[in-house]
Amino acid sequence: MSEPGLRIADLHCSVAGKEILKGIDLIVEPGKVHALMGPNGSGKSTLAFSLTGHPQYAVTRGSVHLDGVDVLALPPDKRARAGLFLSFQYPAAIPGIKVANFLHAARQAVRPGDLAPAKFRALLMEKMEVLGMDPSFMGRYLNDGFSGGEKKRLEMLQLAVLAPKYAVLDETDSGLDVDALKDVCDSVKTLRASDEGRAAGFLIITHYPRILQYITPDVVHVMIDGRIVKTGGHDLANRIENEGYDTIREEIGAIA
Amino acid sequence: MPSAIAPGEDLRERLAAFDGDLLAPDVRSRALDRFFATRTGRERPGRYWKTDLESIVPETVAGVAGSVRIENANARLVACDLAAAARLHAPLLARAFGTTAAGTTKFGALAAAFAQLGAFVYVPADVASDEPVVITYDVPAGASVFPYTVVLAERGARATVIERCTGGDGAAFVCGATEIVTEEHAELVYASCQELSTGARVFATRAARPGNNAKISWACAELGSALAVTDISVAIERPGVEVRITALFFPQGSQHVDVVSTVDHLVGDSNSETLVKSAAVDRGQARFLGNIRIARNAQGTNANLRDDALLLSTKAHIDSVPALEIAANDVKAYHGATVGALDGEQIFYMESRGIERNAAERMIALGFFEPAIAHFPTNALRDEIRSALQAKLP
Questions:
Q1: How high is the ipTM of this complex?
Q2: CA–CA gap between residue B215 and residue B190 (Å, rounded)
Q3: Percent helix, strand, coil in chain A (nearest 5)?
């Protein structure tokens, strides 16, 4: 039975023997945007890494299915080929690998042989323009000496080029000035408006509601201490903007 | 197996019977004396490094062996066989041949003792050549070969020389030297690419003396052979010099590679940049010693030494020793060295983009060499180096 969606059920994850995720239940439907908010240290990035299969993040319980595919049974590269994408908060710099070669290798891996080199190049140019990236980017080494903003733009370029089924954006907004944030959000919007990206589901991890003013989420979740403690609509993000996380902490304290 | 006679005596007899006419017998004989009298000063064999460089001698020297092919498209420069240069361009040759420190090292002295096979490149003043001169030494199976390359670039000349060393099946022994002399404002790129068979032993001594405001870029790829011992040195005796030394090597199987680079800043207002990228896999062993010496009156020197070593298997080993000796007080000297395995975060990042783990590791390892590969001339040579490195990757 293959139900569509990125379906996370009772996910527990430990890092270096310490349990960080304490049972996450979350379903990102195709075409929907979910925001995952929470204070620093609540486990948001751990969720991102456990979904994508980072070797230091040990899933101890639970399941993750991507349109019916058992994601946790796959190594990281196969998860990507199944249609999962993570925009890294701190992408690795890899000197010696040129951005263009890397993007081509990634596109070939995820969508083998679907674009001739000339068309691939045209696609890159088109996506880079949306992101306000100079073509000289292509000849630079991957994230090597990139500013924070350049790294985030490159993550979004990869998102646009790979057009995954489900994308997790981990703090893509952090460290960006307003112009860069707008470019990044425009890129996501362009993808969502395209044939390739129309059905993509998004999980946007952030602790500032700022990015959600540009990309309106369908659902907002709040994570505290490894659990999703509250789920709501866009108004929940507004409430966090105004009140911070303290009142939510008090609420769940009262319930518990 | 211990030989019946002392190795030295054997070699003296062979030198006496050597039929090369490039050098007078007494000059050869003195060079051989230096070979025996000089120690390499390299570290003794230990846990990883198994070869004792002090006791190595060529077992078989049977006349002048090997061949050289010289490709040069520019009629304004001279690029010819060394013996021909001695006949036709003796005054030019004398301005460079034997004038650097090459002959003072142990294996440089051995190369001089048996010097005959070789090439001479002369770039006259203000001649700029875009097409590289390509010198290819081919080493016959089991032979002892002593290739000697001499380059003289006059004032304002600009040229690129590529030296290749191929062949060398069946435990060949190669002991060569390269001497570069440039005059003021000359710019020379010299790249060597050693791709000998895996049974060969190769010793290369390379020395340069740049003139005022001259630029030398020296790039060296040690890709083949069972044992490769390379010594690159540049003596900066004139101001305004810019030197770049690049070395890359990648021992696999049971290959041993030993590279020493030396930049002697004897006068000030000069720049040097040394970049070494190495990897080792299987039981591959390597050591790199990077010397930067800045003399007391070499004020205003800018010296940079960077070396990175990548270990791709648990039994591979690379020793990396940057050695800075600074006697002046108004200089900029930087050195950085890293030794490590592939970075797990880099691998994961690539995997997260759908790239299979082994492919990711290969891309990262190959990319690791790229900053050094970029210093080699011509697309064709860079691609050749990439292919050779790729073939070594697991």
A1: 0.96
A2: 11
A3: 40, 30, 30
Six token digits for residue B181: 């002399």
Q: Which H or E run includes B235?
A: strand B227-236
CB contact at 8 A, B196 and B166: yes
A66, β-bridge pairs: A6, A69
Question: Best of B308, B310, B351 to disrupt the A interface by mutation (most A CBs within 10 Å)?
Answer: B351
Q: Could you report the per-residue pLDDT of B156-178, keeping only the tens digit for each?
A: 999 999 999 999 998 899 999 99
Ramachandran angles phi, psi of B379, nearest 5°: -60, -40
- Touching check for A92 and chain B: CB below 8 Å? yes
3-state secondary structure of B280: strand
pTM: 0.91
Residues in chain B: 394
Helix segments in chain A, DSSP class H: 44-52, 76-82, 99-110, 117-130, 148-162, 178-193, 234-243, 246-255
Residue A94: closest CA among chain B residues belongs to which residue? B346
Q: Does A113 touch chain B (CB under 8 A)?
A: no
Note whether B354 contacts A54, CB cutoff 8 Å.
no
| Per-residue model confidence as pLDDT tens digits over B290-312 | 999 999 999 999 999 999 999 99
Q: Which of B73, B364, B371 is nearest to B219 (CA)?
A: B371
Enumerate the residues of chain A whose CB falls inside 8 A of the CB of residue B345: 92
* Whole-angstrom distance, CA of residue A144 vs CA of residue A155: 13
Q: Which residue of B has its CA nearest to A51?
A: B352
